[in-house]
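Lab notebook: predicted structure, single chain.

Context: the supervisor wants predicted structures on file for every construct in the current expression panel, including those that have not yet been purified. This is the next one on the list. No modifications to the sequence; it matches the entry in the shared construct table.
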Amino acid sequence: MAASEREPLTGNIAFDSLIAAFAEEREADKAEAIRLRIWEEFGVEGAAFISDMASFSSTSRKVGVCHFLKLIHRTRQIVGPIIEKNGGTLLKFDADNCYAFFNTTDEAIQAGFDINAAIFAANEKFGLAEQIYLSIGIDYGRLLLVGDVDYFGDPVNTASKLGEDLAVRAEVLVTERALENSTFTIPELAERMRARISEIEIEYIRLPMTEVAASR
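Prediction complete. Output recorded below exactly as produced.
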């Protein structure tokens, strides 16, 4: 199959063409030149923000996937505008996950707080089976940002581990390195944690919604 016939990675023609060329190049010096060009054109510093709906699998099994799809729809209506209000770029929704990019850690953290607060307020209108809870992971560093479509890099991988694997409902987990690029004051009750997932060691801070509310 020719490169032009292959499934695109992101839908961004420039990015996908460079990745295809990098994948097919066999000469080391030329491949390195392509790699450097990819980072030159798409490399940025910023915060990766990834949220996950808590108890997706167990809730779907109990009440059915259509019920959960309804909750996903409601979540998206809440999350999208708050990300944009806090200066973020909403890249994509994928099932019960949200992927966003922020120029600063502070913006990402504030978006996390505002989203959880809005969801808590929305939950007051519904019974237990209709309530929504999010877990959020945030990391900061150099990554490949493909317009307003997608992103790739170590901060993205780490934010994903935090939001999907380590955080519980209504928690915002932020890496130590993200906080080093932040003016955020860590609440006294916030816990410093360390975890190792898929051979990746992560140092992070737990910011439950209750602790944040008490510190503001």
